[in-house]
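Fresh eyes needed here. I'd like your take on this protein's tokenised backbone:
***
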Amino acid sequence: MRIRSNSLGRLRRAGKVALLCGLMVGVAGCNNLSRLKDVGRTPDLSPIENPIEAQDYQPVSLPMPAPEISNRNANSLWQTGSRTFFKDQRAARVGDILTVNIAINDQATVNNTTQRSRSNAEDADVSSLLGLEQQLSQRLPGTIDPTNLASFGSTSSSEGSGSVDRNETVDLTVAAIVTQILPNGNLVIRGRQEVRVNYEVRDLYISGVVRPEDITNANVIDHTQIAEARIAYGGRGDLSDVQRPRYGQQIYELVFPF
């Protein structure tokens, strides 16, 4: 009965592993089957959708200052905060569009070197312990020395070095939509742009919080003036598939422990 239970346990574990592998292969296979429709044709562009209804959309909640009371100017055609006499052309309401200039030129160089060494030594002797040391000598003649009962020693050393040399340049322009107005007047923006060249689609995504005062008269703002900015630039298509490792290799690198 014990042998049979062990065999059943092994079979159950093997079945679970086979089921997990089958699910992983099935998911990858479904993904590949869904992409077979793009063979010989250009990838489809994403439809225009309401940003608020997107799955990854979340309203922004930040600490707000105390509300300010606006002063009204009686018998005046001029609006406080307006940059034009008749109307401010800058984005100010939900659904308005503004232009975002993205000019990223980051450089970073880091060099680190670490050296570490340690040497330890421990000696112990028991010259008198209720006469037990004599019994040890009798039981193990010629092998026990009470004056040098134990001796330990260890030596360890480590040396490491690392360097980082990074240079990134991104120069783009994208239009964003105001999706939310915070209680202090700041605007939450979100924009996405897709460009298809032959069989490759380039995606540009940006979101964040801006101050109306930072928007220029031309309705343009720089990415450096966007708080909580999230900028993503990537692609999908034949070239991206070639540059990305196959799913089997990715799973192997995650699971293999050595």
